[in-house]
Amino acid sequence: MGCQLFALCFDASRPLGLARFWSGVLGWELVDHPQDGVALLPSDDTGFRLRFLPSQEQKAGQNRMHFDLTSTSLEDQRQTVARALELGAQHIDIGQLPEEGHVVLADPEGNEFCVIGPDNKFLADCGFIGALACDGSQDVGYFWSEALGFPLVWDQDEETAIRSPHGGPKITWGGPPLMPKAGRDRLRFDVAPPVHGDQQAEVDRLLSLGATRIDTGQDGTGHDGAGQVAMADPDGNEFRVLTPR
Question: InterPro entries recorded for this chain (predicted)?
Fold first, then answer.
């Protein structure tokens, strides 16, 4: 059994403000939880929450992961873009071509996301968050498939995609060439051991799959002050293993 993808975490200089933006875009409930901090709870089958964590580090370069939001029609796409702009998003240019049919935006803290046109067949059976699109290798797609217990739904030309058996967004990796890593990842996974699982056993399993520990400087073990274990996947992307939930 794989670990649980508990949350996608955003580093933010203004966590509450960024949470309100994404709450407005996605229509998800905003909560301020003593354990999880500022978070959004999904109102659909997404399967993981969004957490917004305070950080003073400035964004450096393009994020390695971003949301692809789907549209049911061109009018629906225009409405999503207009709503995001009204909430504080802005248009950005990352080299996209007009004929690609998607609109590239950045949230109020510069995190990229795309609003995909209605003719995208790859995301046709997905919800509003069609995909969490990642820059990454084929090996890292295999790693996360094993780590989460999500089957591969695409594996071609070094591009991979996985999806929970229960539905929700696809998680995709675009293959080479990979973007250079620019500082700490501002978007990261929080994973939890399986129900009634053991944190150390899960850490050991992830290490056997190709993950590495990150020394956070807290106690020399990779544990932070809350008992979470900092790790990196085979492409060097940070993630944390939480205490059992």
Answer: Glyas_Bleomycin-R_OHBP_Dase, Glyoxalase_6, VOC_core
Task: For the full predicted model, state whether its pTM sits above 0.70.
Answer: yes
Distance from chain centroid for Cα 161: 13
Helix axes 138-148 and 199-209, enclosed angle (nearest 10): 150
Q: What is the rounded CA–CA span in Å between residue 30 and residue 41? A: 7
Angle between helices 15-26 and 74-87 (to 10 degrees): 160
Termini Cα distance of the chain: 16
- Round to whole Å and give the CA distance between 165 and 178: 28
| Residue whose structure tokens are 């939001």 | 69
Query: How many beta carbons lie within 10 A of that of residue 225, not counting itself?
Result: 8
- pLDDT tens for 80-89 read 999 999 999 9
Q: What is the largest CA-CA distance in the chain?
A: 53
| Angle 94-187-206 from CA coordinates, rounded to 5° | 125
**Residues 62, 185 contacting (CB under 8 angstroms):** no
